Automatic annotation (TrEMBL):
Gene3D superfamilies: Tetratricopeptide repeat domain. This is Tetratricopeptide repeat protein.
Length: 152
């Protein structure tokens, strides 16, 4: 009888904990969707409020850090954007193979006057020869930024 009670108690505890996790996930999902929607509407000030709260809850999420970086850059908070892009890269080192991520990171580093770091990132973009269909002037933009750095 004691084993049955122990198993029943375990099932009840597991259900309660799962319910709390479901509520937490639902809340975090809502925050992410709200931040994304506000950003897509150009309301980046309000989006920043949501993403800052979400960053407290999911500081190790690649997607949350990246969205936070995009929103921060849209609000001209370039230092914060650079920090979040670096965190995104720390979480997923394979982002060095993502042409748009690397260009965004290079541009952000340029804007906060970390020229040596920007040059490293942008040189990687240039040497990779990336030409995303969604950004046909990608290499021209990379060359422009590298030229600006060289002429500093």
């Amino acid at each position: 009888m004691g084993i049955v009670a122990f198993i029943v108690l375990g099932v009840i505890v597991a259900n309660v904990m799962a319910s709390k996790q479901d509520k937490q996930f639902s809340m975090e999902d809502t925050l992410y969707k709200q931040a994304t929607e506000l950003h897509s509407q150009g309301n980046n000030t309000e989006a920043a409020t949501y993403i800052k709260e979400l960053l407290k809850l999911q500081s190790e999420s690649e997607a949350v850090n990246y969205l936070g970086a995009v929103i921060a850059a849209s609000n001209n908070e370039m230092q914060q954007a650079a920090t979040l892009l670096q965190k995104t890269l720390d979480i997923n080192p394979y982002k060095v193979e993502d042409p748009m991520f690397m260009l965004q990171f290079g541009e952000t580093l340029y804007h906060i006057e970390r020229y040596d770091d920007a040059k490293i990132v942008l040189t990687r973009c240039q040497e990779a020869g990336w030409a995303p269909e969604s950004f046909p002037t990608y290499q021209e933009r990379v060359a422009e930024l590298l030229s600006l750095i060289e002429n500093m």
